[in-house]
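Quick note —
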Amino acid sequence: MARLLIAALVLLGGCTSLQLPEAPDTLPKLMYQTPLPPWPVSVPNRQISVDVKFLIAADGSVRHAELLTPSRFASWDKEAVNQLLKWRFSPAMADGKPVQLWIRQTVYLRFEEPLMMSLAEIVCPDRVIADSVYQMLSSGTAFDTLAKDFSTAASRRSGGSLGSVNIRTLPTEIQDELTKLREGEFTHPLVLGNEFVIYKRLRRAS
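Predicted structure written out below.
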């Protein structure tokens, strides 16, 4: 099985907003990443890092990505930028509103095997709703019913089902919670950007 190039981010200073003269109240957080292209050469026991400048739109999408420390492999740099443009963040917040923001981050790269898991989700806009949904789940209400009734994600139409997901693309703290689940179990509400998500590990199709 091919090893994926997964990123861990460290926020650097020098963030500037296109809309505000001062720093926002809340900085963007990575919610989803696509793996970067395979590294062109073998790097045993070596850490790879690159500095990246992102323009994060008010909806959390990446409008622009630029490698500030290009590698010596131009083709890899080009493919990497194409993948970075597919990443998704929680938006920066200022005065209670999402704003567009330039950020600079160091991307530390690590090699990991894909970890596939069949999942469903319920995405809630705030903690109060998420806690209420969690209580109903704990009382025996069907996950797919609550997803259709309460989730704000597009997956609500399929009862929250996401199908098979490579959980390496999710934030590390969420990966840690998902790996604790047995089939049929669900998490407590987890913070994902500015939202709260409850995941259920589905049984694999036989």
